[in-house]
Amino acid sequence: MATDILMPALSPTMTEGKLARWLKAEGDTVSAGDVIAEIETDKATMEVEAVDEGILGRILIQEGAEGILVNTPIAVLVEEGEAVPEASSTQTTAAPKAEAAPAEAKPASATAKAPGEDKGERIFVSPLAKRMARERGIALGALTGSGPNGRILKRDVEKGPNAPKTAPKTAPAATPVTTSEETVRRVPNSTMRKVIARRLTESKTQVPHFYVSVDIELDALLELRSKLNATAQENSFKISVNDMMIKAVALALKKVPGVNVQFTDAETLHFENVDISMAVSIPDGLITPIIRDADRKSLREISVEAKDLAKRARAGKLKPEEFQGGTFSISNMGMFGVREFAAIINPPQAGILAIASGEKRAVVRGSEIAVATVMTATLSVDHRAVDGALGAEWLNALRDIVQNPYTLVV
């Protein structure tokens, strides 16, 4: 009996995805566990495994199709010798928002035909110039293009016949392009970029953020890091400042557990476990793999795990459980020389720590001025779940741990 292969939900926030690539063709034999396709989700490009065996009888959604709703049939699996149905057995296939463009299709901006002109003549015109000409009632054939290959541009329409002698009284409609159209490179937004835009907009508009910053001296932590790395045999491990900050954040959350929470309309969730989501930049987006139980792991364990997660995140090889969840996030831009920044909360979490660069600064100790390596850390908190005094208490706890870093190894 024919079986539908459905668009899977590969993350909690996924409602639709893009079918990036088929790894099996119609007529191929499929076994349970075979990787049959790659799906671009709101988090990453992920492999999809078959759950049944049979023959891939018909592909219903072609490569490159976007906006495919979760649970939409994308292919039909049949048994050997079974007739291949023309469509999904459930007849519920949802058409994707945008099918992949045929290879032979020409860009929409390349050519246009003006009404009443020679049907065999091709006129090269930009989309903006075409719209302006239509609005002003100017035939494209009456214009001389000044762009590459005689392409008609905005300026050609403005200089052409019937062009207004004075500027119109009403302001033109807003357009995102403010430079010459020849200098604009248009890149379609990926599924990940669209979801990042939606989720961050929701976070900033629906979550009441407040921010608390503190300066933390790093010299003792940097000295400890050097000593620990010096003990590594044949470079078996190398602890980074970020590894140490993950552990310090986890210990601070255990010391001030009121920040390790999530707000819901009915209740506030207080977590016993401390799972740290670390922001990792990947092509065209951001993903937050998780160091679970970070308070109970050694710096060496955190270092090895963080490097492995970051590497596989950039390769798009993370498993869903490795980036879904987390009770608190950190975002480190210290490697870019950033002095200070505030991060956007990663819902449903209630807090995220922005870690900036350590730099030499003058500090006052008693009645004397000294030089120390100082980092500014900024806590972004959901005010629905955490009040200002509690956020400040947590930051002070973090500062004490970092400035007395031997608590990280005991």
Automatic annotation (TrEMBL):
Compositional bias per record (Low complexity), positions renumbered to this chain: 92-114, 161-179
MF terms in GO: dihydrolipoyllysine-residue acetyltransferase activity
Domain Lipoyl-binding: from-to ranges: 2-78
Region of interest: Disordered: 87-120, 149-186
Top-tier EC class: transferase
SUPFAM superfamilies: CoA-dependent acyltransferases, Peripheral subunit-binding domain of 2-oxo acid dehydrogenase complex, Single hybrid motif
Protein name: Acetyltransferase component of pyruvate dehydrogenase complex
UniProt organism field: Gluconobacter roseus NBRC 3990
